[in-house]
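Exercise 3.2. Students should predict the tertiary structure of the chain below and write it as structure tokens, then compare their answer with the key that follows.

Predict this chain's 3D structure.
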Amino acid sequence: MGLKSIDNEEEILTQIAGGSQQAFARLFHGYVNQAGRIVYTIVGSMEQTEEILQDIFIKLWKDREKLTSVKQFNAYLFILLRNHTLNYLTSLVAERKKQEQYALFAQKQEDKAPGYPDNRLDMLDKAIDALPMQQKTVFLLRAQGYRNPEIAHRMNLSTDSVKKYNQLAIKFIYRYMKVRETIFLSLLAIRLFK
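Answer key:
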């Protein structure tokens, strides 16, 4: 499973290194379908495939000055695709793991303290309501099972922004609930030791 070189590749790479957008368009159109098939085979999602390809071609454009030193562009692009796709999948797994850990944490906290006067679910609702609008929307969409690319598309954001908003929301909710729990335990201790 490799990539077939396009015609006049060396000349196209030289033109791209010089800033030619037309040459970059030829390179893009010469490789995008081949690259897409490879990435899609690995990730199995059209949205994720498009996101990965976009990231790769943006990286190629940003590093265009280096393209003249690439001897076999098809092999170079294949390695970029492989590495970026694997990094993407690794970060996706890590994010899912964080979400699962948060769900387990929230469940354990609720199980630990069912008798709190301020019910844990009410506290979670208040924490979510206190989030800034973007974080709240991302968090609630994630809770409904939407994936980052879908949320990014719905909210007209980048996937990285969606990830960041979700991380910020989880941190805020954790801190919010932790502070409320500490305050409650302090008040309870004061009442008990009066």
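Discussion points: Residues 114-118 have pLDDT under 50 and may be disordered. The CA atoms of residues 141 and 147 lie 8 Å apart.
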